[in-house]
């Protein structure tokens, strides 16, 4: 006869959107609550350690080492469930989250919602640039860039004219923040060190690597001293650093930028990397439309000091999605915010006073430039060179999830930093071509899960409502 309706949901239902640092740490912070059921909804099956994406793109690490399975991470947390799907709707009045994957729609009810959907790449209104200059926000981005970077050297080997060869041996990175600096440095190391003996018709050491940014400084958030040290190190490695350079156009063969004096310049380059600007998840606009919240220029949600959505105390927003006290879009903000939200929820469930408003504790910022060289800002201390690099290694090893992944990552770093080799140089045409083909497909052409008549049985009591499209 089934469970009586009144007894179906005796536990507090928490829905978490996103499997990044905010979503994962928020879920884990509730693991000791037997009175809570957590459902984590994510559009990928993995937790991504985004700060190391550039190492996947440049062949140092495999994607599995920085993107472990979310299910594996949460396997021992009995009150947590993971479901796959892209969130397409949030109904704050009905307290439901609707997600889709391959034509299958799932509606998940909640009592408390934690939104940690992160941020995407911003092209500042020029979304067409994405086809020619991929960003660095996902595994797909990193694998596509790996194919483009290593493929450029292969095509340079086939070039029949100096102009064609130079175009393939020119790499432009847009954005002089940590990601841009790290990408430019690693491409320089690839060209000048890793690949210099591998080709016969080209000298990879003749590759030109250009770092562009409209800002007047490299790593502006690190201060003048560390930014200057990073710029000097990049230039010593052969990277051309062009500051005060605003990108105005990109196509398949090059990139155009404008300098502060109004002059226009063009660089002929087959490979472009976009590491400038972020845009809050589109879910932010969805939340703002149904609440008293406002969005900032980057699409981030202006939340209350306790990280709740204005007018919706049962909804928390954390990580890169929030606009609060000029917090940076870094992993520690997401981690600390998620843990605070869980603490706030626990107090509410226990009938205790709410904790003090959220305060971010800045543990410092770090960026690598090349092997044995990095910059680090920790409190009032500033480090550069080898000491900063060792600190960077230690901190990043700590935050890689799982002992197995730490060991394999360390081994790959030994191979790459001490030797000349990079173990992840395999590329396929799919990595470069498939994403653009999928982008151009109409919704009717996209694949869907096969459905048969017996699939239309009603869901078990207490589970999500599944709505499937007949084919």
TrEMBL record:
GO terms for cellular component: plasma membrane. Its cofactor is FAD. Its EC number is 1.6.5.9. Gene3D superfamilies: 3.50.50.100. It catalyses: a quinone + NADH + H(+) = a quinol + NAD(+); a menaquinone + NADH + H(+) = a menaquinol + NAD(+). Residues 13-337 form the FAD/NAD(P)-binding domain. It is a single-pass membrane protein. The chain crosses the membrane at residues 383-403. It comes from the Bacteria. Residues 454-471 have a biased composition (Basic and acidic residues). One of its GO terms (molecular function) is NADH dehydrogenase (quinone) (non-electrogenic) activity. Its main location: membrane. Keywords: Cell inner membrane, Cell membrane, FAD, Flavoprotein, Membrane, NAD, Oxidoreductase, Transmembrane, Transmembrane helix. It holds the Pfam family Pyr_redox_2. It is found in: Cell inner membrane. Belongs to the NADH dehydrogenase family. PANTHER family: EXTERNAL NADH-UBIQUINONE OXIDOREDUCTASE 1, MITOCHONDRIAL-RELATED, NADH DEHYDROGENASE. This is NADH:ubiquinone reductase (non-electrogenic).
């Amino acid at each position: 006869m089934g469970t009586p309706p009144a007894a179906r949901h005796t536990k507090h239902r928490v829905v978490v959107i996103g499997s990044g640092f905010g979503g994962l740490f928020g879920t884990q912070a509730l693991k000791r609550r037997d009175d809570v059921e957590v459902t984590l909804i994510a559009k990928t099956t993995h937790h991504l350690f985004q700060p190391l994406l550039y190492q996947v793109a440049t062949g140092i690490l495999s994607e599995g080492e920085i993107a472990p399975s979310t299910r594996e991470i949460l396997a021992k947390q009995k009150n947590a469930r993971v479901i796959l799907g892209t969130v397409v709707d949030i109904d704050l009045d009905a307290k439901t989250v609707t997600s889709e994957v391959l034509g299958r729609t799932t509606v998940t009810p909640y009592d408390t919602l934690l939104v940690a959907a992160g941020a995407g790449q911003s092209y500042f209104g020029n979304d067409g640039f994405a086809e020619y200059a991929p960003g660095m926000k996902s595994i797909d981005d990193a694998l596509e860039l790996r194919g483009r970077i290593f493929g450029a050297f292969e095509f340079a080997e086939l070039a029949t004219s100096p102009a064609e060869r130079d175009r393939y041996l020119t790499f432009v990175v847009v954005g002089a923040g940590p990601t841009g600096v790290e990408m430019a440095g690693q491409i320089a190391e690839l060209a000048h060190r890793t690949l210099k003996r591998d080709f016969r018709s080209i000298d990879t050491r003749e590759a030109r690597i250009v770092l562009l940014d409209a800002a007047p400084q490299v790593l502006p958030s690190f201060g003048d001293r560390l930014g200057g040290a990073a710029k000097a190190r990049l230039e010593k490695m052969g990277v051309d650093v062009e500051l005060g350079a605003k990108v105005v156009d990109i196509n398949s063969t090059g990139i155009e930028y404008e300098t502060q004096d109004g002059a226009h310049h063009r660089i002929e380059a087959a490979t472009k990397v976009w590491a400038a600007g972020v845009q809050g998840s589109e879910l932010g606009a969805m939340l703002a439309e149904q609440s008293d919240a406002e969005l900032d220029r980057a699409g981030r949600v202006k939340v209350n000091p306790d990280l709740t959505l204005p007018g919706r105390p049962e909804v928390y927003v954390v990580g890169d999605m929030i606009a609060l006290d000029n917090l940076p879009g870094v992993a520690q903000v997401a981690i600390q915010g998620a843990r605070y939200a869980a603490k706030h929820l626990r107090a509410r469930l226990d009938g205790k006073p709410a904790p003090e408003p959220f305060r971010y504790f800045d543990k410092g910022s770090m960026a690598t430039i090349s092997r044995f060289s990095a910059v680090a800002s920790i409190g009032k201390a500033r480090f550069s060179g080898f000491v900063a690099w060792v600190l960077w290694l230690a901190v990043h090893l700590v935050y890689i999830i799982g002992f197995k992944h730490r060991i394999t990552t360390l081994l790959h770093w030994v191979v790459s930093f001490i030797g000349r080799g990079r173990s992840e140089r395999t590329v396929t045409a799919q990595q470069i071509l498939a994403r653009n083909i999928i982008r151009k497909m109409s919704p009717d052409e996209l694949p869907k899960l096969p459905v048969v008549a017996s699939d239309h049985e009603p869901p078990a009591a207490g589970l999500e409502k599944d709505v499937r499209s007949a084919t």
